[in-house]
Write a structure and sequence with these properties.
mainly beta, about 45% strand, globular
């Protein structure tokens, strides 16, 4: 999907340079359970039980992870993230989504609205995401004990 605004506007008006430019999804010893990416401009989102990381190639926002708001009528989960410098509204929708660059199909569509806190309007971006499964759980299992019997 083509963006209505250019990369320069996104870089200058929405984000700030973090003090630690080496922020990544392993920061703060948390396990990421959801990841999403998008283009126009390139961006990435990682969500864990404790942190949300939203980043572009040159900027990042790392915040504590708030409790998601779940829609009662559909399979939609939303996060409202506010820092002193920026605000993010993250909406995760269970619907098939195709990555605009790679063509990879993922099970979730992600809509993000972001802005600086100082009188800026929201910029809306879209991408695709998926929940990360523990690969140890994706194998054969054998019941060894049930109740008091072996």
């Amino acid at each position: 999907m083509k963006s209505a605004w250019g990369k320069d506007k996104f870089e200058k008006e929405i984000f700030f340079q973090t003090q630690d430019s080496q922020v990544n999804s392993n920061t703060a010893h948390h396990t990421v359970y959801f990841e999403a990416t998008g283009t126009e401009p390139f961006w990435g989102l990682s969500i864990s039980n404790t942190k949300i990381l939203f980043k572009t190639p040159s900027h990042a926002i790392l915040t504590p992870s708030p409790q998601p708001v779940r829609s009662a009528e559909s399979n939609v989960k939303s996060y409202l993230v506010e820092t002193e410098l920026a605000e993010l509204i993250i909406v995760i929708v269970k619907t098939e989504c195709t990555n605009a660059m790679s063509g990879k199909v993922l099970p979730y569509k992600v809509n993000i609205s972001c802005r600086k806190m100082v009188n800026a309007s929201f910029v809306r971006i879209q991408g695709c995401g998926e929940y990360k499964r523990d690969k140890r759980l994706h194998d054969s299992w054998m019941l060894e004990k049930m109740g008091k019997e072996k």
